[in-house]
Amino acid sequence: MSFEISEELIERHNRRLKPALDRGWAGFERELKRRGTNPQRLFLAARPFVVAVPSWGLAAGGTRFGRFPFPGEPRHLYEKLDDAATLHRLTRQNPTVSLHIPWDQTGNPAALRAYARQLGLSFDAMNSNTFQDQPGQKLSYKFGSLCHTDPAVRGQAVAHNLEVIEIGKKLGSRALSIWIGDGGNYPGQVHFRRAFDRYLESLEQIYAGLPRGWRLYLEHKPYEPAFYFTVNADWGASYLAASALGPKALCLVDLGHHLPGTNVEAVVARLIRQKKLGGFHFNDAQYGDDDLSAGSINPYRLFLVMNELQDAAQDPAVKNFHPAFLLDQSMNLKDPIEDLIQSTEALFRAFSKALLVNRPALHRCQEKNDPVMAEQILKQAFETDVTPLVQRVRFSNGGAIDPLALFRQSGYRPAKIKERG
Amino acid sequence: MSFEISEELIERHNRRLKPALDRGWAGFERELKRRGTNPQRLFLAARPFVVAVPSWGLAAGGTRFGRFPFPGEPRHLYEKLDDAATLHRLTRQNPTVSLHIPWDQTGNPAALRAYARQLGLSFDAMNSNTFQDQPGQKLSYKFGSLCHTDPAVRGQAVAHNLEVIEIGKKLGSRALSIWIGDGGNYPGQVHFRRAFDRYLESLEQIYAGLPRGWRLYLEHKPYEPAFYFTVNADWGASYLAASALGPKALCLVDLGHHLPGTNVEAVVARLIRQKKLGGFHFNDAQYGDDDLSAGSINPYRLFLVMNELQDAAQDPAVKNFHPAFLLDQSMNLKDPIEDLIQSTEALFRAFSKALLVNRPALHRCQEKNDPVMAEQILKQAFETDVTPLVQRVRFSNGGAIDPLALFRQSGYRPAKIKERG
Amino acid sequence: MSFEISEELIERHNRRLKPALDRGWAGFERELKRRGTNPQRLFLAARPFVVAVPSWGLAAGGTRFGRFPFPGEPRHLYEKLDDAATLHRLTRQNPTVSLHIPWDQTGNPAALRAYARQLGLSFDAMNSNTFQDQPGQKLSYKFGSLCHTDPAVRGQAVAHNLEVIEIGKKLGSRALSIWIGDGGNYPGQVHFRRAFDRYLESLEQIYAGLPRGWRLYLEHKPYEPAFYFTVNADWGASYLAASALGPKALCLVDLGHHLPGTNVEAVVARLIRQKKLGGFHFNDAQYGDDDLSAGSINPYRLFLVMNELQDAAQDPAVKNFHPAFLLDQSMNLKDPIEDLIQSTEALFRAFSKALLVNRPALHRCQEKNDPVMAEQILKQAFETDVTPLVQRVRFSNGGAIDPLALFRQSGYRPAKIKERG
Amino acid sequence: MSFEISEELIERHNRRLKPALDRGWAGFERELKRRGTNPQRLFLAARPFVVAVPSWGLAAGGTRFGRFPFPGEPRHLYEKLDDAATLHRLTRQNPTVSLHIPWDQTGNPAALRAYARQLGLSFDAMNSNTFQDQPGQKLSYKFGSLCHTDPAVRGQAVAHNLEVIEIGKKLGSRALSIWIGDGGNYPGQVHFRRAFDRYLESLEQIYAGLPRGWRLYLEHKPYEPAFYFTVNADWGASYLAASALGPKALCLVDLGHHLPGTNVEAVVARLIRQKKLGGFHFNDAQYGDDDLSAGSINPYRLFLVMNELQDAAQDPAVKNFHPAFLLDQSMNLKDPIEDLIQSTEALFRAFSKALLVNRPALHRCQEKNDPVMAEQILKQAFETDVTPLVQRVRFSNGGAIDPLALFRQSGYRPAKIKERG
Fold it and tell me: Most exposed residue of A295, C14, C161, C249, measured as fewest CB within 10 angstroms of its CB?
């Protein structure tokens, strides 16, 4: 990549903002101590937070009514990695990229991996795509892929997933995420029970091809692109499938993939209890799968999800708990890098606030049925302004204290407009 | 009961309407033959249809904003049985009554059973109640029952369920339905995972007390009376519980207990596939758990649910498939007997239309992904006016050809107003 | 167009099915007379029913996850008109086509109009498009069109609408439908009140350009493509705008453009009462704006909408009541011609059943608060199998008795695959 | 009232917490100055904030499945006023009480008013009740009240409202809030257009009886207690009615009275634009009209509503803008006084944060379509921990720095349990 946000630029930026951060942190520290919280322990607990970014989230997304491209958009995967590296340089919280095959033309995986490594990036979960037809594809997914009535179509879809695993192995990935659109638009179109049988049968073949150390994430969604019936429509169906497959198969929760009113944090807790929570696609929504920036519509819900994760992380009875985090959003109007900076920060704020929850006190309130004080405990954590913590972690990790401001000042996008045309 | 709708009255009514019914049936028979359907076979398949009525559905229901009682309402369980017997005399499709303890004061069960038998009625599934406090109750269910943090409250709730089983045994019932309101109104109030642990632990004690030949039905509901979190909120949670318990535990689907947009017929199919569909609480809804008359808002959805049941019933791979049917509605504005006549007929229409579906042809369309013709097959069945079949079955079973009209003409309710005050 | 479904083919088809239709009609006639309904009057009332088809509904639609084209799809507007003509030849209920500019490249409007006339078609309402950017467009609609903060963008959008009117005038259209996606994805992005001010200001300029005898339809939608705020989000906003403009501005109701639970028929009644109901975009939905075939998910709702229209049509107090009908659906999986045949029939069934409602009796039940009998009256009409009426009207209009079957047998699509490649 | 939370107790409590508050405020002041905000001006702008409490919110609420009373609950209106006074003594932000007739037996209004005045309270908007039948009531509201088909029932409902105005005049109230449940449960039951005609006709009679200086608030709600159709179902219907009546009639927005997904803050903005926003019933909801504590489910939404109000309050083009605030919640599980302390604080936090919004900068971002920075401005305000401001305002008004803690320590409820039994 030609134009870069240099380390030096970041240092200069930080030098300017550091005094204010120090003052902010001092106040924050005092406040935490007043509450009996150890600030340094909080800092250490918060510091490792990271979240993956999706390659498809680095260019403009769109709706069925169109897509508004923007100048300076990356034109191919290498340029997307450039942008991801820029993001990570600013935040130090986005070290991995999740690819989507065949949207991402990986070409020579070894070269790609080397390029990423040089940028300080590595590869997160791989995503297969059998919800669209690709030019030259032999059989169509119009009426389904892993659940299609025709074994040849299912076979093609299984083979694609196995191929994605192969690419992933070469890239150093350790997981495959499967989201399918299989379902139907009209009553009568699909035989519900048989479609699920076929789903399991296809998944078993993919599961059998999982390399040692890999995980398989199954992602449910109630509707869209199918508007009447969806095979993996809810956590219950996803759980049935993951259980049938074995311990490497886990459920993936996309925050926007639920019907109106769903208590998503309770869904998360159910999957944790069943040892089947694999990870998250983070975003926010007002209506359906709106794919808005994480925390942009209901930041308290995001906090409550993080609260469940902390509850599990601190529960000795919950073993091997390492849910994967990915920002899966549609950048329809915002510059993707800016959106990802905002969203990473929103997640990190929610994560930090969940660390602030006085968990023993909360459990006592729960045991004695004191909803007022239980809520106060959550609200006190949520209402805390964690800006000093957020900035200090970023700074100490080598990122920018105010990455959004620095990104704008840096002239990165204008430079890319020139470079990329 | 003093005033009754006599057999003689029904006969007179039927005599008057029989010629029109015969003409209607003749036309219906011709139409079926034209389509290649055997009318007599259809008649025989439809004839055994029955649906239970709930004791609580024989008096006026209400909302949290009040209840409008109506004159001539039954004052106690014996009068409710009188009304249920009247209903059954008219429809011949409501031979069983489902009780709700302690709403129903059963007093001497043997006497009650004898009274019911004399009216031609018997007892369906028993319903326990741990979502309300009763006068004189030792511990409150304000903060839960089977899932309460206090083992003493859980013990009380378990004991109540075991007592309901005892009553049920004496009444000849064979099933216990459990719906609990356990959950919470505020984030933080309830620890999601532990609440489910306690739910299972309590259910295990009840399950252990199930007599031979009994079934345990678990009913899920997304919200109300708890408005933030509900322990058994969806089919997935219900399935987890029923699976943990054993083969006698099954899931009960109330059509109104789903979030907006839920494809209920697909939920039904999932539970069938998992061998965990126990039965139904039928009603209809526009918004939430509105408890309106079955088929009053979306009769096509009711048909699609029945279509799944017929699909399973005709599938040799589905064994021991005998889902229980109960009309669970809230009679806020209609005379309950009239509502139950309407609702029984709406169910029976949907059931009959599901029998009309050309299932082999439907399966062929599904296999070859022909949504247009698959839909046509369902629509042809749904658009058929099954009035002649509905009336002929009722007539041949000894009921009234037009039970609603006869009920109004009979003067039953005015007589009850005098008797009951 | 080369291959056509000839009059002769239709006649042969009808000759074969006529005897069965006659038998069906005779039975239907008997049944109506039994109920006191005049079959001939019903036939005459039903006969004029027509519904427009959208040019964009003649090719495959899609979702944001892709579009599955199908072989034999029309490649341009003239081929779309060929398909529309084929549809109309079969149904005789789709004489008009609604264009969408600039999706439809009208080229020489006079030639286009002549071509359509020769096919027996004319042009319905014109649709403008300011929710997408077109190649070569000067200013982008990414952040709005008629409501954009930049007056130059608003001016461009207004000019486009005026240009669409000009094209429409040449084509013989008499109405302009405006649907905009203007709104925002994030809190803070748009100033709600000012955006509405700008909407009105732009509409006023378009309204001023309406030719004599034209109508302006404003279409509301709660969300998509904007996922947080939409300027014309509901009937209330649409009504405010239509009232501010004047008598030629009316509201257009798309059945899928409402939040979950909305009682759409009540919305229709409100707009009728305010003299502002202009017309409909018909389709059906389970979740959001799913754009499924009309009547495919909830045919009773469709009937209830038609019931409101008949109630108004038969009410002497409602003047100048001529709502426009358009099928606005997304043909993602079905052959569009087949979908439109199904949807036209679903609409016509609902329309016919609404004619069957015993309106004086219904009004009496409403006056005396008898919900049971009011519902029986609606249900009796809805449960009537109007197939004989539907077929007889089509036959007497010169269409096919079973247009779907004939379309399949005709080999139309295979011929088009050859012709269109 | 016997046991009271004395001024002295509050002073002692404050003395203990004052040093920490001072430290907190100093930090808050520094932070505001850093941002260029004048802390004293903010303090003065926040200080007048008040919100009314409903008499019915001082006792336990319930659902249709029951009500869990709690010990120490007020037994009548005078005890409710005692509790309201206690609340206000702690918060100094709840000086007014809203009555509900006939739930509240006002007896001798002059004596009541004197009692309230002595407690430092006065009376907010009056609420009439025609959605329930009262013992001894002549005609039933089962099938409606202001919209009933029978003019005698409408007359009774109008007379009740006029009587409520009379009581209100004696109590010093200045507004009447009307919420009716009128509507229907089943298609066909109600004639939509005529029901609205009758609604307007009845409202006109009430409007004519409004004393000088009074306001009439019309409250919409999509469903419950009517589950199919509601006469005043949405802001559009409410606006039509308020417009038809005249300038004293305004719309009242209950945050929970909207369909899933509704952008409530945009509804608020629309009503402001139309000069018809009268006030609010504050509460929060996850599903339907859940009546949970304000800000307990989505505090960001509450902030966004307050943001619209501040936008209007600071807009010179918006005249006479004094929306009324009432906490309308159902205290099913929490002690009502604790709930009201929490809810008042949640509202005040949202109000304070809305004051913090850099409005000129926000408007600039809106004008130039910069959603990223517009969101940042809102988020910066929302993420600010306003605890020091909240506490300082309360303290300076004479309330308790931590009213919830003090309430618990005070032994108020235990004392009331003894007094009230």
Answer: C14
